[in-house]
Every structure is written in C-alpha cells, then in structure tokens.
Amino acid sequence: MAPTRVLTGITTSGTPHLGNYVGAIRPAVAASRRDDVESFYFLADYHALIKVQEPARVQRSTLEIAAAWLACGLEPDTVWFYRQSDIPEIPELTWLLTCVAGKGILNRAHAYKAAVDRNRAEGEDDDAGVSAGLFMYPVLMAADILLFNANQVPVGRDQVQHIEMARDFGQRFNHLYGGDFFALPEALIEEQVATLPGLDGRKMSKSYDNTIPLFAPREQLRKLIFSIVTDSRAPGEPKQAEGSALFQLHQAFASEAETQAMRRAFADGIAWGDAKQALFERIDAEVAPLREKYEALIAQPALIERQLREGAAKLRERYATPTLGTLREAVGLRDLAQGQAAARGRAKPAQAALPVFKQYREADGRFYFKLVDGDRVLLQSTGFASPKDAGARIGALKRDGFAAADADVALGDGVDAVAVREALDAMRAAEEAKA
Ligand code: TRP
C-alpha cells in the first residue's frame, strides 16, 4: 500500500517558541520517524507575506524556523523539507484553483470574516485594510496541500475550515475537468496536543506577546521563567496545581513520575521561586542539546539555504513539475501543435466525416437527393414529384437500410452496397448518440 502522505506548513512570521515546540515541532518530528508515512514539512513563506511586510523579519523567521526544525531532529533525507517559495508550481496551482474556487466560500473563511466583523464594529467599510492576500489565503493553502496529494494535514482547530476548503476546491476541479486529479485531504485534529500557557497564563502566542522563545539563551530562559505570573501564596502555603501555568509548563516537559512529584511539591507548599527553578532546569535539560545544534545551524545559513533548495529541487522533479504538467493539460494550457493534431484526430469519427443526404431540385422540376461522404457520391436517387416524397424515401433508407435491388436509387460510381450500409449505420449511430 502506498504510504499515507502527511503534510505540514509553518508560517514564517515569527521566532519559534516553547508553544510551537510542544504543540507542533516535537510531535511532528516524532511522527516523521514512522515509516508508514511520507512526510512533507515546509516553510510557508508566501503565507508569511500576508501578515509580515518587513522583509528582514520574513528572512530571519524563515532561517530560525528552518534551523529549529532541523535542530529538533527533522531529517531532510527521510522527509520532504522545503520552502514554499522555492516551488513555483504552488503559485501556479493557486491560480488554477482560484478559477474554480467559489468566492462565496472565501467570504465565509474565519480569518476574513473576523476582519470584516471588526471593521463593521468600528463603522468602517467591510473590507477596510483587508488585502486580497488575506482573502485568498485558503486558496494558497489548498494549493500547498493538493499539489502533493496530501492525505492528512495535522492542524489545530482554527485551521480545520481551511482543510475543508481545500477538499472543496479539489473536488470542484476533479469534477469540472473529469478526473481524479487531486486526493482529498483530511484534517488530523490535534485534540490532545497541549496548548502551552504563556508568561501571563493565557495561551502562549505571538499575538499575546507572552511567549518564551524556544532557543532563548540559558540566562534569558531563566529570567523569562522567573517572570511567569503566579499568585501571592507564601512559601509553605499549599498551592493549586490545576490551572497553574507553571505546573502546566512543567508537565509538558516532565515524565509521569516527575509530574506526580511536582504535584506533591505544590500540595506541600513549595516556594514559587523553587518551583520556577525546577521548571527552568527541567526545560533546559531537554532544550540545551537542541539549542547547541540550533546555534551551530544558525551560524551557517548557507548550509540551510542549500538544504532547502535541494529539497525543493528534488520535490519538483519528483512530483510538482509532472503534476503541474498534467493539470495544465487538463485545463487546456497546452502545446498548440499537439492540441491541433489531437483536435483533427478526434473530429474525424465524431462528425465531419459523417455522410449526409443532400436534397435538391433539377431543371426538370423534380426533386432528387444523393447520399454523399465528403466528395464521394454513394447513392443517387431518381426524381420525385415533391420534396416530401424525396424526404420520405430518405427516411425509409435511414430506417430500413438499403437493398441493391432498390430501383429508385442507384449506387454511385465505384461504390458498393456494403459501403452504403456502413454509411447508413454510422449515421444512425450518430443520431442515437445524440438522443
Ligand atoms: N495556515 C497554516 C498556519 O497558519 C500554515 C500553512 C500554510 C499550512 N499552508 C499549509 C498548514 C498547508 C498545513 C498545510 O498554521
């Protein structure tokens, strides 16, 4: 059986933080080691442009995220690891999908709708400050997924709608162009993946500015962990493990046994300072070896650049370029010479070559018909008194066929009865195909 294709995109709009590590990088790297899946990991830098319009930040983020994934154990020899903007087939497919995507569906995309709702609340024009890029975001994402016929896309709940849209666009394309061009992807919803709390206890997120960078230098990591918001319980006072950001952060890195020990320490009234020190040490134990690799990688951007380019080149050769070739052909973006030849070849049996009956009137005032195939006359009738009589005789020929003994029609020069019957059969078949 062909391996399941699992595809993940990471928008290159920030610095990887502990929440990204626990929620995405760590589980994805573990999954990439399974041998029953073919994994695709890519840096979604076209998507980043929708949000970030500072070139240096886009570049820096792309470098940091690539280095982070590599440092955390992603092996470019066993997975596809690439940068979206190195695959020109992605924007090309985006356009093909744009032309089948319903605008009404895009109107209902959460991110776009949220922007419109904000504008309405503020009494602004619906689309104020909304770029066409934001509006088209789901189509670009569908191209990322459909180009490689991904079967599963691990995503958070907020992205599920985008996967459904990718299915919709893929299905429309398949239907419209009559083929199984695209596999229809499924969202792999990460229910049990921890959302990590940030410094202020809310979900760790760039948008709340409460993140702990994954590869903050040791001292900075310590400082940040000591700045986690806690309540004012004094040392010796029992502390609540449930709902404590500190406890949850610890749990995301600790073994079952370590978590139990920390739960007991909370109940026993561990001082916040001691709990923070324990948390710092636990996180640093896991992150320090990765940080070392990360720093080595970040110091060699040319190496990462080369790896990404090589990944993209291989992937284009293997999948993207041939797939786009098929799709271009499907929609009619074709070699003109080949297209002409194909059209001629197909037209022949279809209609141009079909024999036809031609009716006419001669100078003698009588009505005649002949059966012609191109410039060959197959049958020639004698004269009839009226066009209606001639028509009736044609009808009878079509219906009942031709007998060589029929006196009112004669075979044309060099034509035999078999050729006439074949001609009449072909005409009948074409008639039936139309009905
Ligand atoms: N939109 C995704 C996010 O913000 C990133 C992304 C871009 C993506 N293209 C993708 C994820 C394709 C999965 C598949 O998280």
Blueprint (SSEs and pairs):
Blueprint: E1 4-11, H1 18-32, E2 37-44, H2 45-51, H3 55-71, E3 80-83, H4 89-98, H5 103-107, H6 110-121, H7 132-146, E4 152-155, H8 160-177, E5 186-189, H9 218-226, H10 245-253, H11 256-267, H12 272-298, H13 301-331, H14 336-352, E6 356-361, E7 367-373, E8 376-381, H15 387-400, E9 409-411, H16 417-434
Parallel strand pairs: 1-2, 2-3, 4-5
Antiparallel strand pairs: 6-7, 7-8, 8-9
Helix pairs in contact: 2-7, 3-12, 4-7, 4-13, 7-8, 9-12, 10-12
Task: Provide keyphrases for this structure.
435 residues; alpha/beta; Rossmann fold; Tyrosyl-Transfer RNA Synthetase; Double Stranded RNA Binding Domain; 3 domains; three-stranded parallel sheet; 9 strands; elongated; binds tryptophan
Q: Structural class, from secondary structure content?
A: alpha/beta
Q: What is the CATH domain class of the largest domain?
A: Alpha Beta
Helix content: 40-55%
Mean pLDDT: 92
Structure description:
This protein is of the alpha/beta class. The protein has helices at 18-32, 45-51, 55-71, 89-98, 103-107, 110-121, 132-146, 160-177, 218-226, 245-253, 256-267, 272-298, 301-331, 336-352, 387-400, 417-434; strands at 4-11, 37-44, 80-83, 152-155, 186-189, 356-361, 367-373, 376-381, 409-411. The chain has a four-stranded antiparallel sheet, covered by helices on one side. It has a three-stranded parallel sheet with strand order 1-2-3. Strand 6 (356-361) and strand 7 (367-373) form a beta hairpin. Helix 9 runs antiparallel to helix 12 and helix 10 (245-253) crosses helix 12. Residues 345-351 have low confidence and may be disordered. Tryptophan binds next to strand 1, helix 7 and strand 4.
